[in-house]
Amino acid sequence: EPEVTQTPSHQVTQMGQEVILRCVPISNHLYFYWYRQILGQKVEFLVSFYNNEISEKSEIFDDQFSVERPDGSNFTLKIRSTKLEDSAMYFCASILGTSGGQNEQFFGPGTRLTVL
Amino acid sequence: AQKVTQAQTEISVVEKEDVTLDCVYETRDTTYYLFWYKQPPSGELVFLIRRNSFDEQNEISGRYSWNFQKSTSSFNFTITASQVVDSAVYFCALSEQNAGNMLTFGGGTRLMVKP
């Protein structure tokens, strides 16, 4: 069964460093997402991406964040200068469908980011 | 704006008990979709169910059942004869027709099933 994969599973970085979290969505999916879950809290939407551009983003997704689909398979989330409060689990998700909100989002296993 | 509330932060039951997890949502959209996800201790998000706003039929899948009531904006989840393996955090989520598939999650309910 196809699945969303994410690397690395755990990333430890120093405050102020740049990190890139990588995701490989399911191959024929068209919409891609990043979500964040601070330890013990709810899952929060960060950004959605379609047709090589951002379609929606939340207030959390400020100028420190960027997303990219550098080739036909990878979908990356970059944090330019990490802060302590960026420590969280980051989930990538993808959807096959083209519209409507009815599609099941397939989530990756997550990358746990720890900022020291 | 959409909002999902899971009032129960933590529930503890003994194995074989039935348990209901509550979910109340707010939306202005007439077309929306409701989801439940399970997050076991390993951390991944496991999809359980999706319902659209036009389908209020209750659904049963094995020991799991869901009660969708538009009149009270609720989408409750019941586990019958709970098992230790059901121990996890359960999230209810909402997406709106006009909001590009983004999911708004509730705060989650931690279910602990004791042997």
Q: How much strand content do the residues of chain B show?
A: over 45%
Sheet bearing the most strands of chain A, described?
Answer: 7 strands, mixed
The overall pLDDT of chain A, averaged over residues, is 92
Quick one: overall form of chain A?
globular
Task: Quote the average pLDDT of chain B.
Answer: 93
Number of strands of chain B: 12
Count, helices of chain A: 0
Q: Helical percent range of chain B?
A: under 10%
Order of secondary-structure elements of chain B: EEEEEEEEEEEE
Question: What's the Cα radius of gyration of chain A?
Answer: 13 Å
Keywords:
heterodimer; A: 116 residues; mainly beta; seven-stranded mixed sheet; 11 strands; 0% helix; globular; B: 115 residues; six-stranded mixed sheet; four-stranded antiparallel sheet
Please describe what this structure looks like.
Helix content of chain A is 0%, strand content 49%. Chain A has 116 residues and is mainly β. In chain A, the strands form two sheets. In chain A, strands 2, 4, 5, 6, 9, 10 and 11 form a seven-stranded mixed sheet that branches. In chain A, strands 1-3-8-7 form a four-stranded antiparallel sheet, with no helix packed on it. Chain A starts with a strand and ends with a strand. The model of chain A has no long low-confidence stretch (mean pLDDT 92). Chain B is globular, with a radius of gyration of 14 Å. Chain B has strands spanning 3-5, 10-14, 19-21, 24-26, 32-39, 46-52, 59-61, 64-69, 74-79, 88-96, 104-105, 109-114. Chain B is mostly beta strands and 115 residues long. Chain A binds chain B through residues 31, 33, 35, 41-45, 48, 50, 55-56, 89, 91, 95, 97, 100-107, 109-110, 112, and chain B through 31-33, 35, 37, 43-45, 47, 50, 52, 91, 93, 95-108.
